[in-house]
Automatic annotation (TrEMBL):
Gene3D superfamilies: FAD/NAD(P)-binding domain. The gene is hpxO. It catalyses: urate + NADH + O2 + H(+) = 5-hydroxyisourate + NAD(+) + H2O. Transmembrane segments: none annotated. Its EC number is 1.14.13.113. Residues 2-338 form the FAD-binding domain. This is FAD-dependent urate hydroxylase. One of its GO terms (molecular function) is FAD binding. GO terms for biological process: purine nucleobase metabolic process; urate catabolic process. InterPro entries: FAD-bd, FAD-dep_Monooxygenase_BioMet, FAD/NAD-bd_sf, HpxO.
Length: 385
């Protein structure tokens, strides 16, 4: 059996690895000529970690991960702590650690595990055709590839999504802009073993430790979409938006190399109820594009990959039947994640100022139980518990 995998991002590579481990041959095609991951880092929560562990990458992932032992929120202007608590109760309940990692390093780990020379870069899919023998994918260079089924892991701007779902949905602007990157770890800004977030005015400044004595940082600001801003103006833009924030935030901004700052307008897509058409299955952002507000976009793609491979390996009524079973296991789970992230987004970014103010007030009395309970609920909803 042979699978065509469209997309060599996190979802596509995890799927290719998972499929090969259950005895399915794969051919991976990627539109770009060179992989340049979008975003500086990713928080792989324990549900995602378990997926990579199950695929044999436990040691490699741990080597790339930062030590995120605590979580803390600080007041935007004074810098004083609102709450701080250990993540150990979460680890003990779900049975695994969270793994904040540099996205490029995670991507390289997946590609190297699969085999970089095997990936065919510069192959942008244009359309697919199903026939009695399986599926054929056509590419913009005029070439084609045939297989028994196809996995469309071609991202939030998926070429194949509308063909599979039978509808075209526009991306929904979530209402805020995110700046992110990597910076040398500095404990005068935040502790080296803590996820630290400064909050106020519907804005956020957050830092997570990753390997190599670095912080992954991000800034969020509610803004209209389409502003004439880019990397060239990023540092000055951040100084303006956070000019009266606490001293650690100012030190962080001053330490940034403007040429390495990513600026992203955040979107999601209304959840779909269909991921499969015949022998073609959507996976990852192509199936369920979400905001990053609960850190589950990449994890959900990893879950998809594991479930897809499990389903194909454990059912014998044919490929189309197995893909529909994959769909049945993933539609509600991913819908829940997209809507949870959207709800969280609205609270943290002051869609309703009174709701956000109440959240800030609640943080002053937060001991960790409520936050961790919500995280555990999300994590334990994954396919590996």
């Amino acid at each position: 059996m042979k699978a065509i995998v469209i997309g060599a991002g996190i979802g596509g590579m995890t799927a290719a690895i998972a499929l090969e481990q259950v005895g399915i041959d794969t051919a991976v095609f990627e539109a770009v000529k060179e992989m340049k991951p979008v975003g500086a880092a990713i928080s792989v929560w324990p549900n995602g970690v378990k997926c990579l562990n199950a695929l044999g990458m436990k040691a490699q992932l741990r080597a790339l991960s930062g030590n995120m032992a605590y979580m803390a929120y600080h007041d935007a202007h004074s810098g004083t702590p609102l709450t701080r608590f250990s993540l150990l109760p979460l680890v003990q309940q779900v049975g695994e650690y969270p793994s904040p990692v540099a996205r490029a390093e995670l991507q390289a780990m997946l590609i190297d595990t699969y085999g970089r020379p095997r990936i065919r870069f510069g192959k942008r899919v244009t359309h697919v055709e199903q026939h009695a023998r399986g599926v054929t994918a056509w590419f913009d260079d005029g070439t084609q590839e045939s297989g028994d089924f196809l996995v469309a892991a071609d991202g939030t701007h998926s070429v194949l999504r509308a063909w599979v779902t039978g509808e075209k949905r526009e991306r929904r602007y979530a209402g805020y802009v995110n700046w992110n990157g990597l910076v040398t770890l500095d404990e005068s800004i935040a502790p080296a073993d803590q996820w630290t977030t400064f909050v106020g005015e519907g804005k956020r400044v957050s830092l997570m430790p990753v390997s190599g004595q670095r912080f992954y940082y991000f800034f969020d600001v509610p803004l209209p979409k389409g502003l004439a801003q880019d990397r060239a103006s990023a540092k000055q833009d951040l100084k303006s938006y956070f000019r009266d924030w606490a001293a650690p935030v100012q030190r962080l901004i001053e330490s940034l190399d403007a040429s390495t700052i990513n600026r992203v307008e955040i979107h999601d897509i209304e959840p779909f109820s269909r991921f499969v058409r015949g022998r073609v299955a959507l996976l990852g952002d192509a199936a369920h594009s979400t905001t990053p507000d609960i850190g589950q976009g990449g994890c959900a793609a990893m879950e998809d990959a594991v479930v897809l491979a499990q389903t194909l390996a454990t059912h014998s009524l044919g490929i189309e039947d197995a893909l529909l079973r994959y769909q049945a296991r993933r539609v509600e789970r991913t819908r829940d994640l997209v809507l949870k992230a959207r709800k969280r987004c609205d609270v943290t970014h002051a869609r309703d100022a009174a709701v956000t103010a109440a959240w800030y007030a609640d943080l002053r009395n937060e001991t960790g139980e409520r936050v961790l309970a919500g995280m555990c609920d999300t994590i334990e909803g994954g396919p590996l518990g």
